[in-house]
């Protein structure tokens, strides 16, 4: 009998694994690995001193105005969100063919003018549409240039520029289709 | 001396090390997963966008939250700006950006980003104001935080 008693001295630790497993699964499920996403924008630095207004060829500028009721005025006409992407692509990729549209992708400028009362969401959607147009052009160009299929999602990955390859590819696309999106001074006063 | 007892073979696989292994996994996950650092004082529901990029590592991104305060009876319902754990005013944005840049290691300076985490219900006014403030600093690379979605 004495022999048996000595065998049972240790604490039964086999359920410890189960408990730890439960904790592990809890953490696996509850924590989300940070995958924050956003629409990237380069801001133009504030000019120093007075800068004379630059003469822009009107045909190169694609103008989008959003009023405080979130209505779009595109190139002087009432417009819809759905037309932006298509028109941007035509505008940028025009190469002087249509006298109303841009001379070359390098000269093309997209101007967004908002009101202070415009919804942030509307602005972001417009920006998104513009980027979509540009990124499709860039992805097509890269596919052609590199001889491999590059989708828009691939291009978004490339534009993170986290590796040397992506940096080079992004530069290639950027040289062909530089993104000239300018945020014009907002309408609706009372800034700050 | 009872030598015979020791000679008895133990047919079971020793499992006493298993909890240790699992605990090590557990600790790994506990350490590597980032919990939200800031307690949000404003309600932020991110808008949806299609052309979104993954942001850089958390220590390279400075977050600016904009939205309606959660405690409306104390802070009102007008949109407020929160950085780190506090509400700030518009004129403190520049200082915030400068401090955030200063905290980034020299090698990663060009990968520094500011993430504007604006609520869907915002008007452009406050966003424009922040953008103009940031233009005064060197924090010119920004994200409008958004969740992937929207129409293709």
Secondary structure blueprint with pairings:
The complex is a heterodimer of chains A (192) and B (152).
Chain A: H1 2-7, H2 14-30, E1 37-42, E2 61-66, E3 72-74, E4 77-79, H3 81-92, E5 109-113, H4 120-146, H5 152-158, H6 164-176, E6 181-183
Parallel strand pairs in A: 2-5, 5-6
Antiparallel strand pairs in A: 2-3, 3-4
Helix pairs in contact in A: 3-4, 4-5, 4-6
Chain B: H1 3-7, H2 18-32, E1 42-43, E2 48-49, E3 53-54, E4 61-69, H3 72-75, E5 80-83, E6 86-88, H4 93-102, E7 113-118, H5 124-135, E8 141-145, E9 147-148
Parallel strand pairs in B: 2-9, 4-7, 7-8
Antiparallel strand pairs in B: 1-4, 4-5, 5-6
Describe, in plain words, how this protein is organized in 3D.
The complex is a heterodimer of chains A (192) and B (152). By secondary structure, chain A is an alpha/beta fold. Chain A has a domain at 58-183. Chain A is 43% helix and 14% strand. Chain A has helices at residues 2-7, 14-30, 81-92, 120-146, 152-158, 164-176; strands spanning 37-42, 61-66, 72-74, 77-79, 109-113, 181-183. Chain A has a five-stranded mixed sheet with strand order 4-3-2-5-6, covered by helices on one side. Chain B has 152 residues and is an alpha/beta fold. Chain B contains five helices and nine strands; from the N terminus they run ααββββαββαβαββ. In chain B, the strands form two sheets. In chain B, strands 1, 4, 5, 6, 7 and 8 form a six-stranded mixed sheet that branches. Chain B has a two-stranded parallel sheet with strand order 2-9. Chains A and B meet through α2, β1 and α4 of A and α2, β3, β7, α5 and β8 of B. β1 (37-42) of chain A pairs antiparallel with β8 (141-145) of chain B.
